[in-house]
Amino acid sequence: MSSDLSPLDVERSLLSPRKAYSMYPMTLSFPEEGVAMLVPSSFMRRLGLMFMIGGVVGTVLMAGVLLLALTVFPLEIRLAIAGALALLDLLPIWAGWAIRNGRIMVKNVTFDRRSGRYWRGRDAGDPFDTSRSTGNIAAVQLLSGQASDGESSFDAMELNLVLHEPPRERRHVLTCRADTRLRVEAEQLARFLDVPLLGCADPASRGQTRMGQTTDFS
């Protein structure tokens, strides 16, 4: 791995996340050859499963209670009311599925060496947009520091991409509560992209002079 960047040349202050889903934990997976994905962690997948189970149970119970209780109405009206409320109960089922599959709250981040691109969510975007080229990634940066969710502050770790162009610009990937597993996965991602890992979540990286620009990508 080679780069013309020195760790001292890159801004090392912790960024304030601007998108809520970046605060949720993610894990690195390799679903197929030449593809790496940051996907919802096991905690988020369990949360999604709880939504789905709750929606199924709620749908069954609500429909059953209504069919038994609303005997004063004709059967057609009871079925219509039960069906409408069952549709409302399907919302948590959809929400659970979307959480587990990286569609809401935590959106998958995909790095595809075959196409030479990376993106967040489902859409790979314009194939001629060179700003999303994996070849434009100069380094992976991992930092630690204090972050805030608007109500309280906590020890956090942050994963950024450092770009060749614009020089030293950083793209925020995720921020989550401090977790040693993110250090391992940052190393794996850097090896996958064949770039250096900067910062290494060193507490000394906090509060350094700003020397670059920062953007989110979606």
Task: Give your account of this protein's structure.
The protein is an alpha+beta fold and 218 residues long. It has two domains: 7-34 and 128-216, no CATH class; 44-100, no CATH class. It contains three helices and nine strands. It has a five-stranded mixed sheet. The protein has a four-stranded antiparallel sheet with strand order 1-2-3-4. β6 and β7 (170-177) form a beta hairpin. The longest helix is centred in the first third of the chain and has 28 residues, at 42-69. The chain is elongated and about 75 Å long.
Secondary-structure topology with pairs:
Layout: E1 26-32, E2 35-40, H1 42-69, H2 75-100, E3 109-112, E4 117-120, E5 137-148, E6 153-163, E7 170-177, H3 180-193, E8 197-198, E9 214-216
Parallel strand pairs: 5-8, 7-9
Antiparallel strand pairs: 1-2, 2-3, 3-4, 5-6, 6-7
Helix pairs in contact: 1-2
